[in-house]
Amino acid sequence: VVVGDFNEVLSQDEHFSSCLRSIPGMICFRNSLDDCGLMDLGFSGLPFTWTNNRTHPSTVKARLDRFVANQNWTALFPDFSVLHLKFGGSDHSPILLQLTIPSSSQPNRRWRPRNFFKFERIWCGKEPCKDIIRDCWATPRSSLCPQASFLRRLQTCRQKLQGWHRATFGSLKAKIKIVQDQISELMAGHISNEVGLHLKDLKAQLKELWRLDELWWKQRSKAYWLKEGDKNNKFFHSVASQRRQRNKITRLKSHDTWIEDPADIQREFLAFYEQLFTSSAPCREAISEVVRTIPRRVTNEMNDKLIQAFTEDEVWFAVKQMNAESAPGPDGFPPLFYQNYWPIIKEETCCSVLDFLNNRRSFQKFNHTNLVMIPKVTDASEVSHFRPISLCNVIYKI
């Protein structure tokens, strides 16, 4: 980790004055960090760390001081936060790096979801994965309603895929290290024909492990703008780490007081949205009175088309329109799963969806979401600075 006054900024929003910052200087700074394998650790607090202490219109403020670190450091200390403290007598503000290092006697109190399942892209194309899905969907349909039957198949599939993943992949990082050590050991000795063949096999294994590791981190980086085939584990890991750090809520301002305890932060969010979404419960007469003032726009012909029964083709059209790697809901199955294995799961999926759409069956079993708070501003410090995003199950989105 490196800290200091770099005398340069990464973007124009880190600089405030009557003139724009020099673009070549910012590009040079970004390239230097990339060449050194360093990434900005972000911050909370004041947006700028330096000022020229002059009055308007000669005021200049910039974020010249920062913490940057490499991938190894962020992997070793995943729970960190950088604070920009209040200015003192200097033209620079102090900056503080806080680390959370859990121990057996004082475990990390930060909340984490337990046993969170997520269908992985690295599973696609693997025949055992396809066999597991086919077996789960080949079981005879039970007497349960279509929604309950579909949900049971998903649960069974999730359990079997988790077991298969642990047995097949385990820790990719550990496997890569083992293969690299084996290659180094063989390279240090005499390379006979037999050893040469073994080395060739190990290098092929290492290449495949690297490919899987790329897919693993690319899925978590959400770098959708990259072209298929782009390869850079280090970049994907950095992007994923930056996303995680940017979205992490370590402190919150409430009534001019900073709160940092995770339980207090949770209560602050709950109280805010409970008050926001509390309805005054208007009577039916008041609602009807408002509706009567709305002019009719839907003709009888349009209405006839709208009330037609939904079809399987429309269900598939909805599925294939989704971003394959968008974040999944509580069940952990993203659109990627449905799009890749549609021939196998089509019948049960359509039966469940169409039973709800055409027969008005209850869909409550799938109406669960993961609520994620996304910062709307660079330096989010209050509850109102976050936007709630509901991550719904794909079956519910359909």
Automatic annotation (TrEMBL):
Gene3D superfamilies: Endonuclease/exonuclease/phosphatase. InterPro entries: Endo/exonu/phosph_ase_sf. PANTHER family: BNAC02G09200D PROTEIN (PTHR33710), ENDONUCLEASE_EXONUCLEASE_PHOSPHATASE DOMAIN-CONTAINING PROTEIN (PTHR33710:SF83). This is Endonuclease/exonuclease/phosphatase domain-containing protein.
